[in-house]
Fold this sequence. Notes:
globular, mainly alpha
Amino acid sequence: MDMETISTFAKKLWCVKKQLIIFLTPLIFLPLLFGLPEKEGKCLYVVLLMAVFWCTEALPLAVTAMLPVCLFPTMGILQSKIVCPQYFLDTNFLFLSGLVMASAIEEWGLHRRIALKVLKIVGVKPAWLILGMMITSAFLSMWLSNTATTAMMLPIANAILESLFGDLATLKENCKLKDETEGLPQIKLHALSSEKQMLSIDGPDGMEWSNRRTTEEIRTESEYQMKVWKGFMICIPYAASIGGTATLTGTAPNLILIGQLKSYFPECDLINFGSWFAFSFPLMVLFLILSWLWISFLYGGLNTRLCVRKQDERAQAERKAQAVIEDDYRKLGPINFAEGAIGFFFILFAVLLFTRDPKFVTGWSKFFNKGYVSDATTGVIIVSILFIFPSQKPSLSWWFDSRASNTSYVPLLSWRKAQECVPWNIILLLGGGFAMAKGCEESGLAAWLGSYLQPIAQVPPAVAVMFITAFVACFTEFASNTATIIIFLPVIAELAMFVNVNPLYFMIPATIGCSFAFMLPVSTPPNSIAFASGHLLVKDMVKTGFVMNILGILSVSLAINTWGRAMFSLETYPDWARQENMSSTVPHVQFPSVSPFNLTGL
């Protein structure tokens, strides 16, 4: 067989790679059904099947998420009446309400007004402008999806950069000036105007050096500006990923944690919107500051100068960029009634979720029967009002004015708009995660896998936390963060019980670590959007993201061992995690004896 035939065959295989994965993966994992205990082996077979399909996207993510509906009942792992309700728990309603609120904010452009206002305040010097971009992206990503935030912020950044540095194509050409002039013949360098030669003190040779020095300055200046441009492009998706960790609705893994806690530990009520925000917001701020320092240092330095050009030219460029921001903000006009109403309901949404039961103070949920009102109840109440509240200021005179328009009033949000903006595939993905976790729990698979992680029991808990966070952060570079947390969180929960450590001590860092996808363009959609702009190289993301991951792991370790330890009483093994308090329907594997450890040594 010649090389051409082999090449043609390889290309054909590549064209049908997804179909091959779909048909071969079930066959490859088939021995698991016969080599392991019956229920655990069957559940592991389904979990690995879904993991491969999620990581390779051989099937759409939402379709893979629905596999438990058909596989768990037919393989005798879980009854259909238990699997199906997992796809719309109250956690899904909380996520849905957050998405609907985000669609209303986008509908009336409130997010753009917030972004431009922040940029007006911070100014246009590189280090401060990067900080402004990161603050804005992180704040918006707390409420909008990180993909939508990145898609909105990148055009704003490009407009500002073009006003500062001019056309990107010209900038790239200027970066190549050194290579172009070094190869030119000597006579061409001397072919200058007689006027310029007369101005030269050292004659033609001196003028050649003067010209070369000027070219070097232009190249150096352009290279600096290109670095700043890359810093702008890379800081936005990173800040969006960081910002999503601060709220429960900010990213799907946070909600997966809540759902699995309710499934595994029904008595645990420590995590809700308020308590999560109180823990994660300071962590997000800390990580954002460290990230800003690193990105600013790497792409332009921590100084606030614009570039190496003359001071008057620099001031002129800064004024031009500031004018672009102010002009865009001016075009928005004054805040209209709809924007004001959305802003009010947005603040009310956040305040009510935060104050329902923040744990460190008494929340308003005490006025209702205990356990009846959840974050989902609060979210659905607020977003339901958006479909009723008018987008135009009500007027009493309208009723008596015969010349006034008789058209129907428009609410702040229509169901058509909500349908367009809500990613229903993510809702199914959440449900698939809860169904998988339920199967792992009921079959005893998570406990069986946890028993084989005995080596982790031999290291101090603080080191184990860093190891778990680092492992999850590395895995999420190649798989979606939702799929990553779905796969590993049940095992991490069983591991914590196995070594007698508060499960939250392992589960919270793992959940946050799933958002630390910084090293590759394919790691997360925001990275892909920034990379698609054409300004970044893979090596830029790897170089920046590697240090970002280290900073993130250290930040999470610091947070969980300081204020997290105090907030959630992590130094003790809680009663709600003891097996005798858990559902009797959940089988538990008898683990080999291991010296338990606690957190007193932290």
